[in-house]
Amino acid sequence: MPSVDELPRAVRHQDATVFLLDQRRLPGEVVIEAYTDAMSVERAIREMRVRGAPAIGMAAAWALVVELERSAEQDPQRVRRHIEQLAGHLRAARPTAVNLAWAVDRMLVRLARAPAERDALIAHLADEAQRIEDEDRAICRAIGEHGLTLLRPDCGVLTHCNAGALAVSERGTALAPLYAAGERGLPVRIFAAETRPVLQGARLTAWELGQAGLDVTLICDNMAAALMAEGAIDLVLMGTDRVTANGDVVNKIGTLGVAILAHHFGIPFYVACPSSTFDAATARGVEVEIEERDATEVTHVGGVAIAPSGVKVRNPAFDVTPADLVTGIITEHGIARAPLGINLRQLLSAA
Ligand code: MRU
Predict the structure, then answer these.
(1) 142-350 has which fold?
(2) What are the structural domain ranges in the chain?
(3) Cα torsion 262, 267, 273, 279: sign
(4) Catalytic positions, please?
(5) Ligand 1: which residue has its CA nearest to atom 15?
(6) N or C end of the chain: smaller count of CB under 10 Å?
(7) pTM of the model
């Protein structure tokens, strides 16, 4: 039986090198690229060779370590300034996922406290990056266990984008309960929405669930309403890039539409994320910067033009689902339900 634990890792650090699984090339090719400087990793994040909120945070953290490991600079002042500058670039590579800024900021706090001597400094930063990765692994497993309580035998679960193993250290957030179900022999019918324009649902979610031997059915984004109407969907499970203080959920474009549909059909709509995705400093979803990506993602599919050249295009990569459309948020500490803002804060501060 194939296992989720045999999937290639999205991010890995070894021998002063960051290894990234090139997610632009999936599902056709499994290619792992080696990165030896921070700005190449920054480009890979912008180009979405590595993507998914926790994964880009881990990639950025390891990028800073590799930069230090490869540098010959000995002057402590210059080393620190260089790392701080790179941290600024990495932090800004994608603006919406709070986990990226969160991971980079953790590295900067550690940098500020680390000894000046070069080897000790590297050891401190490597330790912090490893902690971020190890914590993520434990968090995904805990989310899997909490989310599993929502699943019933033969239930139909709709997911969108990719909040699976490819987006984190392993197992995923929204997909973690589905992997846990598979391991316990609980049958679940999973529906993956393709997720235009970048097709993370078709290229990544359908691929990784299939590799792990789970029952996955691919649908186009515009089929969700029809499937809900015919009773095929019992539950929606989504990831998120940021949850604001009031419980609004910022996630992949198309999430809001699915949430509205789920509300219309009375289907529970759950979001899974690590507590680091909770942005208590931002009051509401409308305040979050939504990344607007290149028009070619909309006008082309697989390098082939599907629209008239020069057509006007909008390409917001994320949308905001208001808290009142969200049934609950599954974190590593348990599930918070309405009123989300208050209950999520209580759950996290109790932990
Ligand atoms: O643009 P992407 O592919 O990085 O977007 C990813 C998502 O929207 C995921 O749902 C989110 O990051 C959660 S990943 C555990």
Answers:
(1) Rossmann fold (3.40.50)
(2) 4-137, 142-350
(3) positive
(4) 241
(5) 163
(6) N
(7) 0.97
